[in-house]
Design brief:
By secondary structure, the chain is an alpha/beta fold. The protein has six helices and twelve strands. It binds glutamine.
Length: about 190
């Protein structure tokens, strides 16, 4: 790709703005996206962390499902925490609708409700697990890039990625996860 790449962060709910400095430090442009016109204009997507049920409701209320699915199928996408839940093909505890972009099963709030959140080092970079899901099943063609306490927490399939943690809240730019995702998008 010769033109500078633009990463669209879905801006319906959740941690959107913290991605800006990471994306720019990795040599790409940031755009908060929420309309089909925005979706068509970007090279790749980040589906941020937040609350997957709320995001689902907003996607359906604004009639964005079909347009998002069409774009997710043809451009690289990275789902973070709630975003990982939305990209899975199967969601449990409880079951809910998802885009089925990656062949993975995800259990919501996998670490329980008491120990909701913690910080851990993933590849020497501190990241936040916030009411994080646990990936309980991985289909063919999905590569585990990092595990934490025995569970896969960073997966890739081609240029698509999911992380069950938030790297964007760490103020050291860019995170290794943003760097790898954006290198993949640029390589396209
Ligand atoms: N527990 C949230 C959900 O189920 C995800 C939390 C997050 O994105 N940090 O959607």
């Amino acid at each position: 790709m010769t033109h500078p790449v633009t990463i669209g962060v879905l801006a319906l709910q959740g941690a959107v703005q913290p991605h800006k400095s990471h994306i720019e430090a990795a040599g790409a442009a940031f755009r908060a996206v929420k309309t089909p016109e925005d979706f068509a204009a970007v090279d790749a997507f980040i589906l941020p962390g937040g609350e997957s049920t709320t995001m689902l409701k907003l996607i359906e209320n604004f009639g964005l499902w079909d347009s998002l699915l069409e774009n997710f199928r043809k451009k690289p996408i990275w789902g973070i925490c709630a975003g990982c839940i939305l990209l899975a093909d199967t969601v449990t505890d409880p079951a809910q609708k998802s885009f089925g972009i990656l062949p993975i099963t995800v259990r919501r709030n996998g670490y329980g409700r008491q120990i909701d959140s913690h910080i851990a080092d993933i590849q020497n970079y501190p990241v936040s697990f916030i009411r994080a899901p646990i990936i309980t099943k991985i289909g063919p063609g999905v590569e585990t890039l990092a595990a934490h306490e025995g569970d896969p927490v960073w997966l890739a399939q081609g240029k698509n990625m999911v992380t069950t943690f938030h790297p964007e809240l760490t103020l050291e730019y860019p995170s290794p996860m943003h760097r790898l995702f954006i290198e993949g998008v640029k390589g396209g």
